[in-house]
User: Fold this.
Amino acid sequence: MADEVELAERVRGELPALLPAAEVAAVDDALGELIERGHQGEPVATAILKLLRAHPGLRRRAAELADPGVPRAVLPPPGARSLPPAPRYVCPNGDYEYFHVNTSRAIPKCPHDGAGLVPGDPA
Ligand SMILES: [Zn+2]
Assistant:
């Protein structure tokens, strides 16, 4: 799997904390589609990086995730962020989590093993 797809998955899980609320659903949709295509073997790295660079909050977070040398201290401590109440779904095999931010979109299957996602505990 391309590193960019993993990066997109990490950033996608934090969208509500990184973007203005009005932009979350559209970016969640776009990232979700790119992640799914990436898992199917399509070359999506360039498109993912372009999307991340288009939003200052995402660009900053992606740079932090991509460069482990950036001190974590600049990030808010866990639990300090005020996330909107997006329902959380998890893969029963424990390898994927998904925040159902855009409720007009169907809940996806696990991109790793195709399992149906199940409701998880609140993040
Ligand atoms: Zn899975």
About this structure: The chain has a mean pLDDT of 84. The CA atoms of residues 105 and 115 lie 17 Å apart. The chain has one domain: 3-119.
